[in-house]
TrEMBL record:
Bias kind Gly residues: ranges: 330-343
Domain HTH luxR-type: 888-953
Protein name according to UniProt: LuxR C-terminal-related transcriptional regulator
Keywords: DNA-binding
The keyword Methyltransferase belongs to this UniProt entry's keyword annotation: no
Pfam families associated with the record: AAA_16, GerE
SMART domains membership: HTH_LUXR
UniProt xrefs under CDD domains: LuxR_C_like
Annotated region (Disordered), positions in chain: 323-343, 385-473, 870-896
Taxonomic superkingdom: Bacteria
Taxonomic placement: Bacteria, Bacillati, Actinomycetota, Actinomycetes, Kitasatosporales
Bias (Low complexity): 402-426, 877-890
Length: 962
C-alpha cells in the first residue's frame, strides 16, 4: 500500500495471517455479545492492512462499514466521511457531525446513527447478508464506505452487531483522530459499562502512534513466509504460470513483502514470467519501491526524507543489508543498516531524527539505528539519488559547487529540495571497481553514474547474485561527493552523541567538519561545536581544544564562545571572562533556544550559577513553545545541572525527572544517564539511600560503555556523599580519591575541584589528613581564580576542618561570613552544621545551638532530610530542643542523645570504627555506649537495632500525621 487505501476484493484470500484473523474474530465475538471493543492493525506500506479490513467486513456476522481516509485533510474532513458512511442520507450525516462536535463526543452520535440505520433498513437487506460489498463515494469526500450485512434486530431482540472498519488512520486529520480516540476510551471493553454492539477495527501505517485505549488490542502485520509468498505469487500469476527460476528470483528479491511482490509482478510481461524474455535486473528496482513506498515518503517533511536517505547511505557505507532481509527469513523483524543512535541539539536540528525514531520509521537495537523495514531504506535512497552529487571513482572532486548545493543536507541545513523520482524511473548508480564504465572517469559531471545500479547490473551479469544488497558498497560510497559524505558523518556523530560512545561521536563529527570545510562552512562549524560537546561529556580536554580550533570555519557570532571556552580550558581566565561575558549578555537575551543554551553554558563556565539557571529556564521555555521535542531533554539536562550547582535541590529534582522522561521518550540515553546522576546527587541530600543507589547505578550502567566521564563523576560523588551521611567516612573518602586527583583515570576535569570540599570532610573524619591537606591546598589555588561563587566559603570550611586548637573557630566564622554573599544556602547550612558540631565537641553547647538551629531550619527548607536529621541529632546532643519536637517524642527516653546517635549509625550498617570516625570518639568508647544501648533496649546484638530504629521512625511519623 502506498499510503492510501487500495481496493481489495471482499473475502479475498489472505496468507500467513492466522493470528490477525483470530484477533478480528475475537473483536467480532465481543461485538456480537454486545460488549464491542477496539482492535488496532498496523503495518508497513503494502503489507495488506486494507485487505485485512476488507476480509473482516466480508466475514462479519452483522452490519459492517468501511471508511477510508478522505482525499484532503482539512479539519473534521475524516469525521465527515465517517458520518456520511454511517448515516442513511448525507443530510443526516451532516446533522450528526454538528451534534457530535457541539456535544464534544462521537460515541452517542455514532450509536444514534447505527440505531437509525437499523430502524430504516428494509427487511430485504437481511437476505444480502454475507454476499458482498456495496461501495459508494458520497459528499465529495473521496471516502469509500461499504455497508455490508443485515439490519434490524437479532432474534433475541438485541441490536445486531456492528463493525466499523477505519482504514489509514494516519491520513485522518488531527481533529477527527482526537474525537475518535475519546470515543474509543469510552467504548465498552475499554472501561465503560455502557453496553454497545459496535466494534472498531482501525488500521494505520507502522509509523503512526495509536492513542492509549484501555483494553484495546494491537496486531502488527509482518512479512510472509516462503510458503505464503509462493501461494500469493500463484494467485497473482494463475496463467501463464511463472517458471521455477523466475519464481525463485521473485521470492528472493521480494523478501516476503506482499506489496513489493505484487508490484514487481505487475511490471512483468507474460514472456518475462515464462522465462522467454529476461527479467529486469534487479526485478525489485527503484520503480517498484517508488510504487509501494512513494506515498509514505512524499508525505514526510523534506528534512525527514533527507535524513532517511542519509541513514541509508550510512548503512551502505557500513556494508549492511540495504535491499531486504536475509534469504529464508524474508525480513521478519529485520532492519537495513545500522549506526550508533541518538541526537543532540545544535544548529543542525535533530528533531526530524528523533521524530523518525519515535514514529517507528527508524529503530534502535543495542545502541544502533536502522530501518524497521529494509525496503524503506532502499526507497529513501532511491528517492534522493537523482539529485545527489557524485564524483568519478578515485578521481578528484570535479563536481561543480552548484551541484553540491543540491545534495540532501542534514536536517536543518539550507539546501534546495530533492527532486521527486518519476514513477517507473530506473536510476543507475556507481560502477563496481572492475566495471568497464570506469573508463569514463574523466567524463563530465552530468554523465557520472550515481550510487549502486551499474554495480548491481555488472555483478549480476557475472552471476554474483540477484540481490543488490549482496554487493560490496565501497565503490558506491566513494562515488559520493565530500559534501554528501560529510553530512552523512554529521548525522552519524549526532546519533552517537546521544545514544552511543561519545568519543566515537567526537571522531565522526571531526571527520564531518573536515569533509564540509569550504563546502558548507556553517555545518562544518556546527560539527566542530558538537565534537567539542562530545569531548566535554567524555572528559577529554585535548579533544575539546581540537574541536574548538576551527579557525576561519567559526562564524563571527560564534567566535566569542569558541575563543572564551578555549581560554577557560587553558586557564587563561581573564581572557575567558571577557569573551564569555559577552556571550552571556548577547545570547542570554536571544529568542533562539540554541543560543540560550550556549549562553547558559558560558555562565556555568564563569561560575555564575544564578545566571545559568535563569538563561537555561528561558531556553527551556523557548523549546517548549516551539515544540522542539528533541531539544527538550538537552534543555532540561542543562537546567537541572544549573539548579544543582545553585543548591536548589528540589527544583533540580523536578527538572531532572521531567528531563529523564523526555530523554527516555526520544531515546537520548546519554542525556538520561546525566539526569540519573543529578537525581542521585539530589537523593544523597534528602537521605534516600535506596534512590541514590538506583539512580547512580543506572547512570553508571550507561556512562561506562559510552565513556560519559561527567555523568560517572556525578554518580560516584552522589554515592560518596550518601556514605558520608551514613557515617561511612572511610568508604566515602576512598570513593572520592580518584575523583579529585588529576590524570586520565580521575574524575571529570570540570567537576574535580567541586568535589574537593566533600573529600576533605570525609578524609579528615577518616584520618587521611595529609591527603585532605594536599587537596585543600590545590583547591585554594583554584578558588582564587574566582570561577565558582561558593568556593571561598567552602575553602574556609576546609581550613577549619584541618586546623588545630582555636583555629577552626576563626575559619568557621570566616566561612559563614563568605557564605552570606554567594547565595548557596545548602552549602552555608553544611558549614553551620560543621561549626556547631565543633563547638559541641569543645564543650560549648550553648554556643553550638545557634548554628545548629540555623542549619536545621535551612536543611528542612531545602528538603535535605538526611542532613536535617544529622543537625537535629547534634542539637539534641547539646541538650537543646530541636525544631522537630515530634522527633524528640519519638526517641526512646531510656537513651542519651549520644547513645541514640550511635544506635542510628549502627542500624545503618556502620562498624564501631566507622562510628568512632564519624563522632570523633575512640572505638572503645563506642563499644561502651553500644553495650549500654543493648542493656537499656533489652536487645542482645546489633542485628536487632535496625528494627528498633525503624519503629522509632514509624512512631515519629504517626505523631506527625496526628
Amino acid at each position: 500500500m502506498s499510503g492510501a487505501t487500495q481496493a481489495a476484493a471482499p473475502g479475498a484470500r489472505l496468507y500467513d495471517r492466522a493470528a490477525e484473523l483470530a484477533a478480528v474474530a475475537r473483536l467480532s465475538a465481543r461485538a456480537a455479545a454486545g460488549s464491542g471493543g477496539v482492535l488496532f492493525v498496523t503495518g508497513s506500506p503494502g503489507e495488506g492492512r486494507t485487505s485485512l479490513l476488507a476480509r473482516a467486513a466480508h466475514d462479519f456476522p452483522g452490519t459492517a462499514y468501511r471508511v477510508a481516509a478522505p482525499g484532503h485533510r482539512g479539519p473534521w474532513s475524516a469525521a465527515r466521511a465517517l458520518f456520511t458512511a454511517l448515516a442513511p442520507t448525507p443530510a443526516a450525516g451532516r446533522r450528526a457531525l454538528r451534534r457530535a462536535r457541539d456535544e464534544g463526543g462521537f460515541g452517542p452520535a455514532v450509536a444514534a446513527l447505527v440505531a437509525e440505520a437499523e430502524a430504516e433498513a428494509e427487511p430485504a437487506a437481511a437476505l444480502r447478508h454475507g454476499t458482498g460489498a456495496e461501495a459508494a463515494l458520497r459528499d465529495g469526500t473521496g471516502a469509500e464506505a461499504a455497508r455490508l450485512g443485515a439490519a434490524g434486530r437479532s432474534p433475541a431482540g438485541r441490536p445486531r452487531p456492528v463493525l466499523i472498519c477505519v482504514d489509514d488512520l494516519h491520513l485522518w486529520d488531527a481533529h477527527s483522530r482526537a474525537a475518535l480516540a475519546a470515543t474509543w476510551r469510552e467504548a465498552p471493553g475499554t472501561g465503560s459499562r455502557r453496553p454497545s454492539p459496535v466494534g472498531w477495527l482501525v488500521s494505520a501505517a507502522r509509523h503512526h502512534r495509536f492513542p492509549g485505549v484501555p483494553g484495546a488490542e494491537t496486531v502488527r502485520l509482518g512479512r510472509l513466509t516462503t510458503a505464503g509468498a509462493r501461494a500469493l505469487l500463484g494467485d497473482l500469476c494463475p496463467a501463464p504460470a511463472p517458471t521455477p527460476p523466475v519464481v525463485d528470483r521473485l521470492l528472493d528479491e521480494a523478501a516476503g513483502h506482499p506489496g513489493v511482490l505484487a508490484a514487481a509482478v505487475r511490471r512483468l510481461s507474460a514472456a518475462q514470467l515464462t522465462g522467454i524474455a529476461p527479467l529486469p535486473r534487479p526485478a525489485v528496482d527503484d520503480a517498484v519501491l517508488a510504487e509501494v513506498y512513494g506515498g509514505l515518503l512524499d508525505r514526510l517533511p523534506s528534512a525527514s526524507r533527507r535524513l532517511l536517505a542519509t541513514v541509508a547511505v550510512l548503512a551502505l557505507a557500513g556494508r549492511t543489508e540495504v535491499g531486504g532481509a536475509s534469504a529464508g527469513t524474508h525480513g521478519r523483524g529485520g532492519g537495513a543498516g545500522a549506526f550508533p543512535t541518538g541526537g543532540r541539539g545544535a544548529r543542525t536540528s535533530v528533531d526530524p531524527l528523533e521524530g523518525l525514531v519515535a514514529d517507528g520509521l527508524l529503530c534502535r537495537r543495542d545502541g544502533v539505528l536502522g530501518f524497521h523495514d529494509a525496503f524503506l531504506g532502499r526507497a529513501a535512497l532511491a528517492s534522493a539519488r537523482p539529485t545527489w552529487p557524485t564524483r568519478p571513482q578515485e578521481a578528484p572532486d570535479t563536481t561543480p559547487r552548484a551541484g553540491n548545493a543540491a545534495a540532501p543536507p542534514v536536517a536543518g541545513a539550507a539546501a534546495p529540495e530533492a527532486a521527486p523520482v518519476a514513477p517507473g524511473a530506473v536510476t543507475s548508480t556507481a560502477p563496481a571497481p572492475d566495471s568497464p564504465t570506469l573508463a569514463t572517469a574523466g567524463a563530465a559531471p552530468e554523465t557520472v553514474p550515481t550510487a549502486t545500479g551499474s554495480a548491481s547490473r555488472t555483478a549480476l551479469a557475472r552471476g554474483a547474485g540477484h540481490r543488490a544488497d549482496r554487493l560490496g558498497p565501497s565503490a558506491a560510497v566513494r562515488s559520493l561527493s565530500p559534501l554528501v559524505r560529510g553530512r552523512a558523518q554529521l548525522v552519524r556523530g549526532l546519533a552517537a552523541l546521544a545514544g552511543g560512545p561519545v568519543m566515537d561521536a567526537h571522531e565522526a563529527l571531526l571527520q564531518a567538519a573536515e569533509l564540509l570545510r569550504g563546502r558548507a562552512p556553517v555545518e562544518a562549524s556546527d560539527a566542530r561545536f558538537l565534537a567539542m560537546e562530545a569531548a566535554w561529556a567524555g572528559g577529554d580536554v585535548a579533544g575539546c581544544l581540537a574541536a574548538l580550533d576551527g579557525g576561519e570555519e567559526v562564524p563571527g557570532a560564534e567566535r566569542d564562545f569558541a575563543e572564551g571556552l578555549s581560554a577557560a580550558l587553558t586557564v587563561r581566565l581573564d581572557e575567558a571572562r571577557t569573551t564569555l561575558a559577552r556571550v552571556v549578555a548577547r545570547d542570554g537575551a536571544a529568542d533562539d533556544a540554541r543560543l540560550l543554551l550556549r549562553a547558559g553554558s558560558a555562565a556555568l563556565v564563569l561560575g555564575d550559577t544564578a545566571a545559568a539557571a535563569r538563561v537555561h529556564a528561558r531556553a527551556l521555555a523557548r523549546a517548549r513553545a516551539e515544540r522542539r521535542t528533541a531539544l527538550l531533554p538537552r534543555a532540561l539536562e542543562q537546567l537541572a545541572y544549573a539548579e544543582l550547582r545553585a543548591g536548589r535541590h528540589s527544583r533540580a529534582e523536578r527538572t531532572a525527572r521531567e528531563g529523564l522522561r523526555a530523554a527516555e521518550a526520544t531515546g537520548q540515553h546519554n542525556v538520561a544517564a546525566h539526569q540519573h546522576a543529578v537525581l542521585a546527587l539530589v537523593a544523597s541530600v534528602s537521605g534516600d539511600g535506596s534512590a541514590v543507589s538506583e539512580h547512580a547505578g543506572r547512570a553508571l550502567a550507561t556512562a561506562g560503555p559510552h565513556g560519559l566521564v561527567q555523568a560517572a563523576t556525578l554518580a560516584e560523588w552522589a554515592l560518596a556523599r550518601a556514605e558520608l551521611g551514613r557515617g561511612l567516612a572511610a568508604q566515602a573518602a576512598a570513593r572520592l580519591v580518584p575523583l579529585v586527583r588529576p590524570g586520565p583515570r580521575g574524575g571529570h576535569f570540570a567537576l574535580r575541584m567541586l568535589a574537593v570540599p566533600c573529600f576533605v570532610e570525609a578524609a579528615v573524619a577518616a584520618g587521611r589528613t595529609a591527603e585532605a591537606r594536599e587537596a585543600a591546598d590545590e583547591y585554594g589555588a583554584w578558588a582564587a581564580l574566582g570561577v565558582d561563587g561558593p568556593a571561598p566559603a567552602q575553602l574556609a570550611r576546609c581550613r577549619a576542618l584541618l586546623s588545630d586548637g582555636e583555629g577552626p573557630g576563626y575559619w568557621f566564622g570566616e566561612a559563614v561570613r563568605r557564605h552570606d554573599g554567594c547565595g548557596n544556602d545548602f552549602e552555608r547550612a553544611r558549614t553551620l552544621l560543621a561549626y556547631g558540631t565543633w563547638l559541641r565537641r569543645r564543650r560549648r553547647p550553648g554556643a553550638a545551638r545557634g548554628p545548629l538551629r540555623d542549619a536545621l531550619v535551612t536543611f528542612e527548607r531545602a528538603a535535605a532530610g538526611g542532613w536535617a536529621e544529622h543537625a537535629r541529632s547534634e542539637l539534641r546532643a547539646t541538650g537543646g530542643a530541636s525544631a522537630g519536637s515530634s522527633a524528640d517524642a519519638a526517641a526512646p527516653r531510656e537513651l542519651t542523645p549520644q547513645q541514640q546517635r550511635i544506635a542510628r549509625l549502627v542500624a545503618r550498617g556502620a562498624t564501631n570504627q566507622e562510628v568512632a570516625d564519624h563522632l570523633s570518639l575512640s572505638p572503645r568508647t563506642v563499644d561502651h555506649h553500644l553495650r549500654g544501648v543493648f542493656a537499656r533496649l533489652g536487645i542482645r546484638s546489633r542485628v536487632e537495632l535496625p528494627g528498633v530504629v525503624g519503629r522509632w521512625d514509624a512512631e515519629r511519623e504517626a505523631r506527625v500525621e496526628r
